[in-house]
Amino acid sequence: MLMKTASQSLAEQLCARFAERIRTRLLALGARLPSVRLCAEQQGVSVSTVVAAYDQLQAQGLVVARKNRGFFVRDLASNMPFAQAAYAQAAIENIAVSARAPVDAAALIRGMFHSVSHKPQPGMGVFPAEWLEAGFLLAAVRKVTSASALRELSLHYGEPMGDSGLRRALSQRLGALNIPADPGQIITTVGATHALDIISRTLLRAGDCVMVEEPGWAVEFARLDALGMRILPVPRRADGPDLEVMAQYCQLHSPKLFVSVSVFHNPTGHCLAPGSAHRLLQLASQHDFHIAEDDTYSHLAPDHATRLCALDGLQRTIYVSGFSKILAPGWRVGFMAAPPELVERLLNTKLLATLTTPALLEKALAWCIDQGQLRRHAERIRSRLDQARGRSVKLALAHGCSFAAEPAGLFGWVETGVDTDALAQRLLDEDYLIAPGSLFHAVRKPGTLMRINFATTQDAAFWKVFTRLRDGMR
User: Fold this and answer.
1) DSSP class of residue 121?
2) Is the dihedral of CA 211, 214, 216, 219 positive or negative?
3) Which pLDDT score, from 0 to 100, does residue 25 have?
4) Confidence class of residue 103 from pLDDT cuts 50, 70 and 90?
5) Per-residue pLDDT, 413
6) Average pLDDT value for the chain
7) pLDDT digits over 323-335, tens only?
8) Exposed e or buried b per residue across 388-410, where buried means at least 16 C-beta atoms within 10 angstroms of its C-beta
9) Separation between Cα atoms, residue 141 and residue 368, nearest integer Å
10) How far lies 148's CA from each of 151, 152, 362, 364, in Å?
């Protein structure tokens, strides 16, 4: 709530609030600000105060007024480096159908680095930092940084494919998942997202068609769009992707790649059924496309969960995973396991982008795996998440929400009954960042779903604020 102070007028405070959201992308490029009258009502101030705040935002070059339409976040892309400008323009085009959108895909990522407030954030895609604190991480780093080892690791590039010890440990880990991959088929990356980017840049060219599950991870849509790919959204059902839609895409567009999350799909939590997996692999063989299987949440799932790479034996499939979600976000260690004939091409793409990956952290991670520390840590996280999920589900149901998918994994796919793009903007005023459902579609359009993080929605205070604002919108 805005309060008069000796140092700042209400208009200056309101201007500063919007300016911060624009600079951190909590308000997307091209997004429409609330009307003057609506903003005055939401903030509990006079219309003249809002007019003064919007005038200040215009003077700072952050918004632009369009006659008879309102105020819009200004396109700042012209002041950015070329790569950022291309991404920003793609973001603007993606949200064109919903100019009111208050949060874009980049905002959720920025939220990992720029805290909205000290409150638990329902829209975050990661575990709270206190969940991941583990003493063995320091022990692992100490183990691999003796004076001689540190000198060697610091003064030489690491192995192009990644630390050999880590790749051996990963090969054993994949074997436990029934995925046959020797160390020579494994390439380490700077996180799982980097692995997906390497795959896209290796197998696709601008203008190529790529199938992606919808709803799906917002950043994947934005990343592929920025690379100039034609995105073919595939509806994700409880048992897997809609195979009839995929078959039609194959007939009409000859896609070269399908990106899928088989286990604890983001945002629904669905897991792939064996029957759907077999039919999907038959379709891939028939129409000659590859599948990138993103198993980012593998440490939260049972080993026996259905994975395409296990059934396919890494023939048409490429396995992707990482450790940022479960262990150490700042280490940025991911990897992929690929068919032998693709390894050299994928490695060349990695070398052109990053040369090698940090050997020190890879060796530390290998120690965590070999000593059983990672396995025990994952077991503790799973147990804690199960308890958190139970509490979050009870709170959501008690406050009039329902679940569009059976609650599982880290995320819940929640039906709110109101436009979650509009709700997101109101919740930002209360220092809560949510993930509106429109973010998880290739083309954004208002909807009533939102994704919640079970680890950060156990706080009854959030649900009370949520209920008050939601009921005010009805």
Assistant:
1) -
2) positive
3) 75
4) low
5) 98
6) 88
7) 999 998 889 999 9
8) bbeebbebbeebebebbbebbbb
9) 10
10) 5, 6, 17, 15
Q: Spell out the alpha helix ranges (H) of 119-163.
A: 129-132, 135-143, 147-155
pLDDT 10s digits, 153-211 = 777 788 999 999 999 999 999 999 999 999 999 999 999 999 999 999 999 999 999 99
Total-model pTM: 0.82
Residue 348 CA, distance from chain mean position: 26
Nearest to 219 by CA among 324, 314, 148: 324
In three state form, how does the secondary structure of 396-439 look?
A: HHHCCCEECCCCCCCEEEEECCCCHHHHHHHHHCCCCCCEEHHH
Q: Give the whole-angstrom CA distance, residue 213 versus residue 461.
A: 33
Neighbours of 190 (CB within 10 A): 20
Structural tokens at position 271: 């897991």
Tokens of 35: 């009307």
In 3D space, the residue among 164, 185, 182 whose CA is nearest the CA of residue 172 turns out to be 182
Q: What is the mean pLDDT of residues 343-350?
A: 97
Model confidence over 109-151: pLDDT tens digits? 565 555 667 889 999 999 999 999 888 999 999 888 876 777 7
Which pLDDT band holds residue 5 (cuts at 50, 70, 90)? confident
Residue 113 to residue 433: CA distance in whole angstroms: 13
Q: Is the pLDDT reported for residue 83 higher than 60?
A: no
Instruction: Tell which residue, 474, 384, 467, 458, has the closest CA to residue 119.
Output: 458
- Please answer whether residues 19 and 76 qualify as being in contact, where contact means their C-beta atoms are separated by less than 8 angstroms: no
Residue matched to tokens 């954030």: 121
37, 47 in Cβ contact below 8 A?
yes
Backbone angles phi, psi at 118, to 5 degrees: -75, -10
- The answer to whether 102 and 424 have CB atoms below 8 angstroms apart is yes
Average pLDDT over residues 296-300: 95
Residue with structure tokens 């579609």?
A: 441
Conformational region of residue 426, where left means phi above 0, alpha means psi within -120 to 50, and beta covers everything else: alpha
Neighbours of 422 (CB within 10 A): 18
What is the total residue count of the chain?
474
Residue ranges of alpha helices (H) inside 288-320 are 308-312
Beta strands across the sheet bearing 449-453 = 402-403, 411-415, 449-453, 435-436
The CA distance from 112 to 456, in Å, is 13
Structure tokens belonging to residue 308: 């395409």
Burial 14-48 (b: 16+ CB within 10 A, else e): bbeebbebbeebbbbbbbbbbebeebbeebebeee
Q: Give the CA diameter of the chain.
A: 71
d(C-alpha 468, C-alpha 429), whole Å: 13
Give the Cα separation of 363 and 166 in Å (integer). Answer: 6
Higher pLDDT, 302 or 85: 302
**d(C-alpha 227, C-alpha 460), whole Å:** 41
Pick 284 or 4 by higher pLDDT: 284
